[in-house]
């Protein structure tokens, strides 16, 4: 069946961009400049624990709980280092500010293979938007990585007030794109937050799942993208 798509919405992290190095390594390298020596693996474990706890306590960057996303992140960074044994609070404050800024930089991110698909999609006349569980830095990150110009809108969970898999963030995206759900498809790497959540509001969706990532729920093969380059064959029917 011909998909009469007009709008494509895109997840960003681990769909279009990924971190050049694991968080623990990045944080540890930055800490060395402040004279702090922390094991990257330990720091990575601390970060995952702190990030999980903060996300449960203050979902979606503390939206509606009086917390700014900036403060949310500064607290996560500092607590990750504290949990890894660092006690120099003055250094931690400076380090957290530096890391918060650095994560806007193209030095921190790299394009995933097949990201040139974005240009092809625009040439084919698709309208494009971003739907991402991210904070307000995403605009700057996309600009730094030379991707911002592909998109009519960038909708973050912070701006929307709802995080995927909440259908309301997709409904906002459809309003921004001015299309019906059946005229739109979402592309992302997370089964629950991207693939299933978009389908729940009546959109089409495609799951980026690299070869060898066999785990996870069954998805019809025609909805799976081994790389982003496979998208065109799926939508140009």
Automatic annotation (TrEMBL):
Domain of life per record: Eukaryota
Name of the coding gene: Hdhd3
Protein name: Haloacid dehalogenase-like hydrolase domain-containing protein 3
Species this chain originates from: Grantiella picta
InterPro entries according to UniProt: HAD-like_hydrolase_domain, HAD-like_sf, HAD-SF_hydro_IA, HAD-SF_hydro_IA_REG-2-like, HAD-SF_hydro_IA_REG-2-like_cap, HAD_sf
SUPFAM superfamilies: HAD-like
GO cellular component, one term: nucleus
Pfam families given in the database record: Hydrolase
Parts of the chain that traverse the membrane: none
Family: Belongs to the HAD-like hydrolase superfamily.
């Amino acid at each position: 069946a011909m998909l009469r798509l007009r709008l494509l919405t895109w997840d960003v992290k681990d769909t279009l961009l990924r971190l050049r190095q694991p968080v623990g390594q990045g944080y540890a390298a930055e800490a060395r400049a402040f004279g702090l020596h922390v094991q990257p693996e330990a720091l990575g474990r601390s970060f995952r624990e702190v990030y999980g706890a903060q996300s449960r306590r203050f979902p979606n960057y503390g939206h509606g709980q009086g917390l700014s996303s900036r403060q949310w992140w500064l607290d996560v960074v500092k607590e990750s280092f504290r949990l890894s044994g660092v006690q120099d609070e003055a250094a931690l404050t400076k380090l957290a500010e530096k890391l918060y800024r650095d994560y806007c930089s193209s030095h921190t991110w790299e394009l995933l293979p097949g990201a040139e698909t974005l240009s092809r999609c625009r040439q084919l006349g698709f309208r494009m938007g971003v739907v991402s569980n991210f904070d307000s830095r995403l605009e700057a990150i996309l600009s730094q990585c030379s991707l911002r110009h592909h998109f009519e809108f960038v909708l973050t969970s912070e701006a929307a007030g709802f995080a995927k898999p909440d259908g309301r963030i997709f409904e906002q995206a459809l309003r921004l794109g001015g299309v019906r759900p059946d005229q739109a498809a979402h592309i992302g790497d997370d089964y629950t937050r991207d693939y299933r959540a978009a389908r729940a509001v009546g959109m089409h969706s495609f799951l980026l799942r690299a070869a060898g990532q066999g785990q996870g729920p069954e998805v019809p093969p025609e909805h799976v993208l081994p790389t982003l380059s496979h998208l065109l064959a799926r939508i140009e029917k």
